[in-house]
Amino acid sequence: MSTTIAEPRAPHAAPKGRGINLEKWGWLYMRASGVVLVVLIFGHLFVNLMVGDGIHAIDFAFVAGKLSDPFWQWWDVAMLWLALIHGANGMRTITNDYVTHRTTRSILQWAIWLAAAFLILLGTLVVFTFDPCLGFDPATASETIIELCAA
């Protein structure tokens, strides 16, 4: 019995009972998320490093002010989710390529996805529950924090 490899651009015919082609969707996700991540990351860098006083303005008050705005919360969460899923999918691909033992590969892939899910959950909680006024002391706080916490 000979096995032939399909042409790279040939339409995928899923084997009986298999369903969707996860490798194809993973490949497409990597390309789409990569493009969106470039826009999100360069937007993030531009606002943080070029607008206003640039890098000299970045301190706790700057981050607190940014994370109090829903637009920047969603921007950061989109960047977090896309980057972590993109990275986990890349690690999954590397694991598929280099780990030959089936059980080891399965354990590593579960560990990758569990770590990504934990970091996504933790990061999302931090972004949406961040409170710069926790332990607020007006005597030691900057003007920006005082304005944020006075409201």
Automatic annotation (TrEMBL):
Keywords: Heme, Iron, Membrane, Metal-binding, Transmembrane, Transmembrane helix. It holds the Pfam family Sdh_cyt. The chain crosses the membrane at residues 28-51, 71-89, 110-130. It is found in: Membrane. This is Succinate dehydrogenase, hydrophobic membrane anchor protein. It comes from Microbacterium sediminicola.
